[in-house]
Design brief:
8 helices, 21% strand, 10 strands, single chain, globular, alpha/beta
Length: 243
């Protein structure tokens, strides 16, 4: 992968995605940064150093029109997701959280076998394709779906509670969980991570790739035989983002 690379962010308006976008734009490592999504960051919220930013509103029901392959992205960062409450139903949740994500990653993959691309996906702690819970099952299935696309390198983050997430919707459950994980974090580094630290870790992983990750990242191989990926948990994200 070239020293100066092209990065695509899917879901840059989310709690972690907005921090990731700022990190990418403030780094000299990326010759071009694409922000593609159902909506994009308003100009007033963008940092001054945005000369290499390309924004595009995408209809995920018609990805061909977006021509994601044209960007020849070296690294595809995925921080796109939703909740059942925001989606309106379990069916729509899975459509947005899994189908849109996997299809977009597929659309961003070039046909050039010489172009070695990397994809970095922000999943969730507890993700499991066999889970009886909709949210964690969807995340686990999405991980496998992305891993089967044939990217040269697939990295998945499973963070704990996202501290510092500024959301337009107030979530009582998250507020309560925040108090609990905040207290527990004094005894364990597996409980929570600030979204700004997580964003730094995600960018760093995208830059270094699986083979370049430091031991502190605690990266392991996960998935299945036909869908393997590099997994970084909450402790690893903290270490990587605070380096």
């Amino acid at each position: 992968m070239p020293c100066v690379s092209r990065a695509l962010v899917l879901g840059a308006t989310g709690a972690t995605g907005k921090h990731l976008l700022r990190e990418l734009l403030s780094s000299n490592e990326w010759s071009k940064v694409g922000e593609y999504g159902r909506r994009v960051t308003p100009e007033a919220d963008l940092p001054p150093n945005r000369g290499n930013l390309e924004q595009k509103t995408v209809n995920f029901e018609n990805l061909e029109a977006a021509d994601l392959k044209e960007g020849r992205w070296d690294v595809v960062f995925v921080t796109l997701g939703t909740t059942r409450g925001n989606a309106g139903s379990a069916e729509m949740f899975e459509k947005i959280d899994r189908e849109y994500v996997v299809n977009a990653c597929k659309a961003a993959k070039t046909d050039d076998p010489e172009h070695k691309q990397r994809v970095v996906y922000l999943s969730s702690g507890g993700a499991n394709p066999s889970s009886s819970f909709l949210y964690t099952r969807s995340k686990g299935l999405t991980e496998l779906g992305i891993a089967r696309l044939g990217y040269a390198d697939t990295i998945v983050f499973r963070p704990g509670f996202l501290k510092g997430a500024q959301r337009t919707d107030k979530r009582l459950g998250e507020t309560i969980a925040g108090y609990l994980t905040g207290a527990a974090s004094h005894f364990s580094s597996n409980m929570e991570v600030h979204v700004s630290v997580l964003a730094k870790a995600i960018m760093k992983a995208g830059s270094l790739g699986s083979s370049g990750l430091p031991p502190a990242a605690g990266a392991t191989k996960a998935g299945r035989e036909d869908a393997s990926f590099t997994l970084i948990g909450n402790k690893g994200a903290l270490a990587l983002g605070q380096e």
